[in-house]
Structures are given as C-alpha cells and as structure tokens.
Amino acid sequence: MEDKFDPLLLENQLCFPLYAVSKALVRQYEPLLSELNLTYTQYIVMLAMWEKKTLSVNDIGAMVHLDSGTLSPLLQKLEEKGFLDKTRGQDGRKRLISLTEEGANLKEKAKDIPLKIGNCLHLTPDEAKCLYSLCYKTLGWLE
Amino acid sequence: MEDKFDPLLLENQLCFPLYAVSKALVRQYEPLLSELNLTYTQYIVMLAMWEKKTLSVNDIGAMVHLDSGTLSPLLQKLEEKGFLDKTRGQDGRKRLISLTEEGANLKEKAKDIPLKIGNCLHLTPDEAKCLYSLCYKTLGWLE
DNA sequence: CTTAAATAAATTGCATACAATATAACAGTA
DNA sequence: TACTGTTATATTGTATGCAATTTATTTAAG
What we know:
Two copies of one chain form a homodimer.
Chain A: H1 15-34, H2 40-52, E1 54-56, H3 57-64, H4 68-80, E2 84-88, E3 95-99, H5 101-110, H6 113-121, H7 125-141
Antiparallel strand pairs in A: 1-3, 2-3
The structure holds a DNA duplex (30 and 30 nucleotides).
C-alpha cells in the first residue's frame, strides 16, 4: 500500500527550490555588494551598463528582465549615488542611461565578486554548466 | 588573440538566470493562483499548512525559508481571508497557525496547478530532476 | 522569588517586483 | 495641420523580502 504521489507537497515542487535558492544566493551577494554601495538588483543593472555603456530604460529592462516600474526608482537611486547619468536622446521619449566615471570605475572594485560567489556554491564545473543551461532553457519558454 | 574571459558579463553569471527564471516562474503561477485568492508566497505557505495542519511561525519559516518579518503580515492576510486561524499554545510566545475548513478545502481547488505549471516548463523528466537536485544541493551549502 | 538571558513574533524601514494607470512624445494620416 | 494611435517612461498601489529593533514570554540562575 504505497502512499499516492501528492503533487502539492513542498518537496514535490520544482519552482520552490528555484525560488528559495535564488533568494539565498542573492543574500550571499549582499555583504559583498554593500561594500560597493549596491544592492543585488542595482548590481545586475550595473553589469548591463558596464557591458553596453549606454542604454535606454527599455534596453536595460530587456537585459535584466525588469520593467519600468522597478527600474525607474532604481535608476534614480543609481543616479543619486553618482554611478549613472540620465540624458535625453533624439527621441524625446527615451532616457539614455550612461555610466559616470565613478560608475565605470566601480567595475574594478567588483571584479572579485563572481569568484567569491562561485566558491560558496560548491558545484563542479559540469554541474554549474548544467544548472546554467537548464535555467536559460526554461527562461526561453517562459517569455 | 581571443578576448579575455570577463566574469562580470551578464551572460557569465550563474545567479542571474536563477534569479530571472525564479521570477518568471512565479509570474506563471499568479493567474492560476488569483483564482484561489492567493499570491505565490501565500501559496507556498498554504502548501506547508496542507502538509502539517498546525505549525508555529518559525516552523513555517523553516519550511519555506522566510522570516517573521515576511510571515507576520502574510499570515495576517491569510487569516483575514479565512484560510488560517491563529491561536496561542502552551508556550505563550508561540502562535500556532492552523487551517480553517475553508483553508483545508482550498487544497482541492489547487490540485491541478502543479501539472499546469509543469506543462509550461518544457523540461524532460531527467532535466527537471537534475534542476531540482542542483537547486537543493546548492541550497544545502547556502544555509 | 527575582532577575538576567534567551526565544518567538511583531514591527519598522528600505528596496524591490509588477500590474495597472497616467503622462509625454513621436508617427501616421486625413 | 489637427487627430489618432503607438511607444517610452514614470507613477500608483499592493505584496513581498529581509535586516534590525522591539515586545512579550519563558527559562535559568542565584
């Protein structure tokens, strides 16, 4: 007489461990990022900016999967911290976001963060690649 | 002359796709859960309650990885919705959370949700198992 | 019994997330 | 050109997350 499989047990969820590990990992970043005066969300926006130098709000949103409701106040804060500038482009609707010199210099201070985070994951390179691929594969179906 | 590997490119992050897929997946739940008058976080608390029937706030927190700062107002809302009851145990510091009849009945209405979510993931059973295991393995190292 | 230390929840303050709405500016058309 | 529809961003409202603090209660020591 085996128990019937209950799809509503917490341990039978797939989303829940994703949700839990995502939050736990973000918490690992916070002490490292606070030294740069950044939160995790601000950090991924800075990653996008270090990569592209100048972007519209929508461009950033497409890269980091956030909408203007989240980005508007967040970009405001990064501007107040002196890391970003906002200007108007030819198209007056767009706000062009660009790095200040201070914002660009911050990349140097961030360079050790990925390794430090990687070290606390305890995944083999293959496991990390597998996790990475499965996340992107799933993400591809959800948008 | 190959480009040097830049660990600060968005595409070289492991946390970022986890963070993005977690949010995207939670968004998939929202339209299904709104029919039950639940948010995703409220749903995982209800999963814990359906499983254990009675729990303290800390017990729930340990199961779903949330602290009292998040749970206190959330449990308040679930109580107002009529899904949960709060009582005092022998230990007057603890609040014992239990299911109301309405809360218990809600499980029947939720029973198809896991399958619906599973269908939109487009992962093979092996891939799902792999993703599940890697999340729990990582989670184990982060707390 | 009294009081200091520990524990359980709740509260506060700040920073997301995101749906829905509003606003501003551009683009196409009669 | 005046009007309409579209696009880009900002604003509003609700619900988390979580660190830090506070409050209530219990436990342990003296």
